[in-house]
């Protein structure tokens, strides 16, 4: 016997469509901000606005958006909007969500965006040190994961339709997903450290091999065991597609950034496009791994012998 489903668990909060939509909009804007931030780095525009928290001495005046300033100041303005949206998410969640952990998550998102803004400011004030720029790049995608998780936890499918799948197969998907998630997150750190000239490319290439193996193992094991459960199979399939695109973009980034950019004074358009796309797709790979990991932890109860669980009331058995 492979898997058993049981009756739904009580979730403790009603579905609130307006709140959910707001969290989806906020999370989508964070994705745009990641693209805007990547444009700053790829266009070498990090120091186009030399001061912080002011921009050319003013807290509110918009400077002429020319050259690198349009990327750096545009990124700051979008970051301010995200800060406001995150305040909205934290306050609204506090008001309408009955789950204490969700309210904590909302405030954690706000704390993360503040830390992210401070790191952005510090990297300018200290002339883009690799450690701070790398931390800024890493926290950006971690923040994106928090915001997408909030949107996911407020969705109709999360609030209304839980299902428990029992399985005794090894290796456990709960463990495998955590290892894969750790590998993708480390891969982000190594990619960012290389991008900000903190380390060489080799660790990122080795990381790509590890991520390739871990993610394929996780996704194929999920599809083989639970391909008939859309909540597990869909993120697993999406992850495989995104991983393939990400590796292709990684190769394109390598060619344009490392091979073609030698001795070139201004950033090549092909390099900007491929590296920004690689950063953006990297964020999607990370967040899809997070969603799959959450779904696996939510829906799977992995124990030694599911047959012993037969007296669970209301369960249905999956062949
Ligand atoms: C509020 C949330 C923010 C998010 C989510 C965010 C996100 C990002 C991302 C994803 C990058 C690209 C990293 C990379 O390509 O490796 C970036 C770069 C950058 N961000 Fe932000 N950022 C935020 C706020 C700020 C703020 C307030 C500043 C203020 C100065 C700032 C300054 C910079 C600079 C200077 C870079 C370029 C770093 C470099 O080239 O080394 N960011 N940001
Ligand atoms: C296996 C999956 C991979 C993931 C999840 C991944 C992820 C990332 C991320 C997130 C960044 C940028 C981090 C940031 O600054 O925000 C990055 C940078 C980079 N990655 Fe990957 N990567 C992968 C595979 C590859 C492969 C196979 C190659 C090439 C052989 C590659 C080459 C690069 C290069 C050259 C950069 C730096 C781009 C630049 O300097 O602008 N990546 N990677």
Provide the fold topology:
Blueprint: E1 3-6, H1 17-42, H2 68-96, H3 100-125, H4 130-153, H5 156-160, E2 164-167, H6 173-195, H7 202-226, H8 230-259, H9 269-299, E3 300-302, E4 316-318
Parallel strand pairs: 2-3
Antiparallel strand pairs: 1-2, 1-4
The chain binds protoporphyrin IX containing FE (HEM) (2 copies).
One protoporphyrin IX containing FE binds next to helix 1, helix 2, helix 3, helix 4 and helix 6.
Helix fraction by DSSP (H/I, runs of at least 4)? 55-70%
Q: Shape from CA axes?
A: globular
The assigned structural class equals: mainly alpha
The small-molecule ligands in this entry are: protoporphyrin IX containing FE
The description of the largest β-sheet is: 4 strands, mixed
User: Helices and strands, in N-to-C order?
Assistant: EHHHHHEHHHHEE
Mean pLDDT across the residues is 92
Give the tally of structural domains. Answer: 2
How would you characterize this protein structure?
The chain has 319 residues and is mostly helical. The protein has two domains: 17-153; 169-302. The chain is built from nine helices and four strands. A four-stranded mixed sheet has the order 3-2-1-4. It is globular, with a radius of gyration of 22 Å. The protein starts with a strand and ends with a strand. The structure holds protoporphyrin IX containing FE (HEM) (2 copies). Residues 42, 137, 184, 187-188, 191-192, 194-195, 201, 204-205, 208, 211-212, 246-247, 250-251, 253-254, 257-258, 275, 278-279, 282, 285 line the site of one protoporphyrin IX containing FE.
